[in-house]
Amino acid sequence: MNGVEQLMPGQSPLPLYVQIRDSLRRKILEGSYAIHERLPSENEMMNAFGVSRITIRQALRDLHNEGLVFSAQGKGTYVSKPKAVQNVQRLQGFGEAMAAQGYEATARLLSIRQCKPAKPVIAALNLPPHEEVVEVKRVRYLNREPVCLESSYFPLDIGQQLFARDLSGDIFPMLENFFGIPLGSADIGLDAVLADEEAQSLLGLKTGEAILRVERLTHDRSGRPIDFEYLCYRGDSFKYQFRVERK
Question: Where are the beta strands (DSSP E) in the chain?
Fold first, then answer.
């Protein structure tokens, strides 16, 4: 049976349902179970793992809560399409946030160039009207599925240093660890827009599909704007998570 391993009681201090959950999670994240593939039935897993039904259901409930699987009434449990969940109470790069959830996050560089940007970029970065910036365009992948088209704009003193760097991961840690720029805060705006032809092609969308567009302006600790981004996410692959309080 695809991906199911016999447990060895006594060899791990973890409860059996945790061992089963972790085994199934690993198989899902490694791709042994494809997106929308049906997992083995509860009876099949009971026999394969040598455990009770309640133990299997505890493991599956955790995977449900993590968003890794979903159930169809009378048909079984299936692998979910990866969905990024990012908490906006903390300033993190995409890879940093996804790694904490056990996902594999990578980036593919489409282009990097020095250019004269549109007026909103100039205004956001608080630059003189004719100042150029460095534009970085990338596709972000979650478990090797394209989920985001990212366009980032940097002032020249920062952006020119990116030409010699590997841009397959998060840029935030690079700014802090290699450029010595302590990050401070970010202003974030969200809206839904129709995907253009580029986004449709790169993210595998159909004509007329909407995307979640995030505008993020990041400041260093002194308050200087250092990175302005348009992050265009597939609507079925990303969720921003907020916590608000009534005061």
Answer: 69-72, 76-79, 84-87, 105-115, 133-142, 145-155, 183-194, 210-220, 225-234, 238-241
76 neighbors 60 (Cβ within 8 angstroms): no
pLDDT tens per residue, the chain (247 residues)? 555 555 544 566 788 999 999 999 888 877 788 888 999 999 999 999 999 999 999 999 989 887 788 888 888 999 887 666 776 777 888 888 777 766 778 999 999 999 999 999 999 999 999 999 999 999 999 878 899 999 999 999 999 999 999 999 999 999 999 999 999 999 999 999 999 999 999 999 998 899 999 999 999 999 999 999 999 998 877 777 777 778 7
User: Contact, 214 vs 224, CB < 8 A?
Assistant: no
How many C-beta atoms surround the C-beta of residue 57 within 10 A? Answer: 14
For residues 87 and 184, what is the distance between their CA atoms, to the nearest angstrom?
A: 16
Backbone phi and psi for residue 166, each to the nearest 5 degrees, phi listed first: -80, 120
**Integer Rg of the chain from CA:** 22
Taking alpha carbons only, the member of 12, 78, 13, 15 closest to residue 51 is: 15
Tokens 């790169």: give the residue: 202
How far is the C-alpha of 223 from the C-alpha of 187, rounded, in Å? 11
Dist. CA 74–CA 42, nearest whole Å: 12
Report the DSSP pairing between strands 183-194 and 145-155: unpaired
